[in-house]
Recover the amino acids of this structure.
């Protein structure tokens, strides 16, 4: 239903991954490799709560900058998991991002 996805877009103003062109997706994946993936891998090892919280907020900023709804969703999920001390969930979300699977 197109109205549902249009409502999703207008709610956050961000574009869902599948609405980006192939060229845009490739460019976005390269940006993620540069901006977020190295830090996600470091945080998988350290688990520093303050650094994790800062990273979750940074993911949200990058999501807005790059216009990717799924990244914004990830930042909210990560922030919630950190706040609620769901360490397995935090690791899972970092794995998804570090492995590039979040935007598969």
């Amino acid at each position: 239903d197109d109205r549902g996805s249009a409502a999703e877009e207008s709610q956050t103003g961000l574009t869902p991954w599948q609405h980006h062109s192939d060229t845009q997706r490739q460019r976005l994946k390269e940006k993620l490799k540069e901006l977020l993936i190295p830090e996600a891998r470091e945080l998988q090892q350290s688990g520093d709560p303050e650094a994790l919280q800062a990273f979750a907020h940074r993911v949200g900023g990058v999501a807005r900058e790059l216009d990717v709804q799924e990244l914004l969703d990830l930042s909210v999920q990560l922030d919630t998991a950190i706040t609620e001390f769901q360490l397995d969930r935090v690791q899972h979300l970092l794995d998804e991002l570090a492995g590039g699977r979040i935007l598969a």
Helices lie at 2-12, 22-35, 37-46, 49-66, 69-83, 87-98. The radius of gyration is 14 Å. The mean pLDDT is 87.
